[in-house]
Amino acid sequence: MKKIAVVILNWNGAQLLEQFLPSVVAFSNEATIYVADNASTDNSIEVIRNQFPSVKIIQNDGNYGFAKGYNVALQQVEEEYYALVNSDIEVTENWLVPILSIFDNQLEIGIIQPKILDYKNKEYFEYAGAAGGFIDKLGYPFCRGRIFDTIEKDNHQYDDEREIFWASGACFFIRKEVYKRLNGFDDSFFAHQEEIDLCWRAFNLGYKAKYTSKSTVYHVGGATLNEGNPRKTYLNFRNSLSMLIKNLPDGQLVPIIFIRLLLDGLAGIQFILKGKFKHCWAIVQAHFSFYSLISSNYNKRSSSQKENYFHTKSIVYKYFIKNGKVFE
Known about the structure:
By secondary structure, the protein is an alpha/beta fold. Helix content is 39%, strand content 23%. Strand 1, helix 1 and strand 2 form a beta-alpha-beta unit.
């Protein structure tokens, strides 16, 4: 049996499969390739069977979103390492070789992310992950190569291997044993920020995440739920708060949650000023959902929370006040 499984989660993405599966099939000789289908109603299954007969199909019995979709599907995957890959990812030749090398030789590394560039503008990093993710003390995520909406050109400034805090769910490598120990993604997240939550839980248990520039993929981004969708706003705001409840150190939990709620209110006002009333309402709904989940999220806290989870105290301050647009 091969060591690594490439698992692509799909929901009504027949066109994306036709466009992007060829590169995965061509350049993944080291892997067994699976498509985990979230009960698609289009012709996705037909496309895979007819055009990609070497690809194994896992059929989930409902649209479980990203988190539960993978949790259900991966119960049927036996390989030692998982490569969880979005359906809108183009991979490159030998992309799996450096990943396998790190997993085989650096046993302390539980999670890996490759360099993620923009499929539509290949000289630039892609929003969802870029050259590896970090968070600030308030739990705001950012990446080397992308802070808020400022995206850097790839001038080989991040051509290295280094520890990161979180790896992008767009192309996410994890040891099966680590995934199982963490009980996978949090089903309640449905989609968005579940990979950051998983990485934070792994960090609290002593596992390390790593970025390598020796593996490169290209990501379309927003192909399943674009930035202008209020549903995305709702999930991001709700899941971000849930993640904080689950992972922050005890002494920082209440003050940081309080500050984040205030900042969310400011974000809502900003949406109103821009005429994006549905997005403001999405934040309100996210908060009510968060309040209803406080007890269950608190019960998911692990026995230890590390204090040194953040890279900087406030990326908001650095970016908006100090004009720090690139990673330091």
